[in-house]
Specification:
Mean pLDDT: 78
Radius of gyration: 33 Å
Largest sheet: 5 strands, antiparallel
Low-confidence stretches: none
Structural class: alpha+beta
Strand content: 15-25%
Number of strands: 11
Number of domains: 3
Number of helices: 6
Helix content: 40-55%
Length: 326
């Protein structure tokens, strides 16, 4: 083997069949071997720490602790890895400054989107825009955040209610429930589009149920039914959301909002539209509205109040004359 590969010169450059390889010598070989060992050690250690953190923070009660622990481990491992690699390859400060300048210029030109995505990651952490477990809309994707890394956010997609079924992308689930698709969205979207967070500071949303009834129906009774059902199913939520709303008012310039259910009238050409507005938790909205709808229908039947629908009423017709042929 020494006949076709050997070290030559004072810097022990590698020669193969008498051809000297530029930049390849014994020193670089040692640095490369040490780099591989160092990187493998850091990655294995970071993986072990993430598994330990996941085990210590297991269960639904500690999602925030698990999230921040994983981010701290990721950031620390990357920082140690970068410092270690620079210490191995750039032992001369002047070479380090030159190398960093070249790398920065190359990244700024060739990896603009990647750099923007990484910057978005730090903005997410620093600005507390969302965390793992939050229900958000990012990049046109609506759902729960299940993972966050340096360049992308992973979202468990959910469907859309009927009023926004025409939004892109199209949905086949007609409610805010999981579709089963896991979507990866680049963190760079943070700088281009608004982020809607359902859970960050106020983990409740206002919902509505619409009931059309005929003008001749007992509207006072129908309104009382809507209010009683809404209050029965949301009284505990209104009490719990009171403290969250006070905290929102303390942190932001926010007007006082009414948490109790209310019914609003709307006049149409065909019927009287009663809309009951109430507060719900950010999850399991469909289940709550299903239970309320069943109770409302039962009480409407007991009160002999029908749900209005668009119909055509014939109030007159031309006279019909029959002639018997001879």
């Amino acid at each position: 083997m020494n006949d076709w590969i050997h070290l030559a010169g004072p810097r022990k450059a590698v020669e193969i069949f008498g051809i000297r390889l530029v930049g390849v010598n014994a020193e670089n070989g040692k640095k490369l071997a040490f780099t591989l060992i160092f990187a493998a050690t850091i990655l294995l250690l970071a993986g072990a720490l993430r598994r330990a953190a996941r085990w210590l923070a297991r269960g639904p009660r500690h999602p925030r602790a698990e999230f921040w622990t994983r981010q701290a481990i990721n950031l620390s491992s990357v920082l140690v890895l970068l410092v270690g690699l620079m210490s191995i390859w750039f032992d001369d400060p002047s070479r380090l400054a030159t190398g960093l300048g070249l790398v920065s210029a190359g990244l700024a030109f060739a990896l603009q989107k990647v750099v923007t995505a990484v910057a978005g990651y730090f903005v997410i952490l620093r600005g507390r825009i969302f965390k793992v477990g939050d229900r958000i809309v990012l990049g046109g994707v609506r759902g729960d955040v299940v993972a966050l890394d340096f360049t992308r956010t992973t979202i468990m997609e959910m469907g859309q209610p009927p009023p926004v079924q025409g939004a892109d992308p199209a949905m086949w689930v007609r409610s805010r429930q999981y579709t089963g698709r896991v979507v990866a969205v680049t963190n760079a979207k943070l700088f281009d589009e608004p982020v809607y967070n359902y859970t960050r500071d106020f983990p409740y949303i206002w919902e509505e149920l619409v009931l059309p009834i005929a003008y001749a129906s007992d509207r006072a009774r129908a309104e009382a039914i809507l209010l009683s059902v809404a209050e029965h199913h949301t009284v505990s939520l209104a009490e719990m959301s009171e403290a969250a709303l006070e905290e929102m008012q303390r942190r932001y310039v926010l007007k006082r909002a009414d948490l109790k259910p209310e019914v609003y009238y709307r006049l149409t050409d065909n019927w009287l539209e009663l809309t009951v507005r109430f507060i719900v938790e950010d999850h399991d909205v469909r289940k709550l509205k299903d239970t309320m709808s069943r109770d409302i229908l039962k009480q409407l039947d007991d009160a002999h109040i029908g749900v209005a629908s668009q119909t055509i009423e014939i109030v007159g017709a031309p006279p019909l004359r029959l002639q018997q042929g001879s």
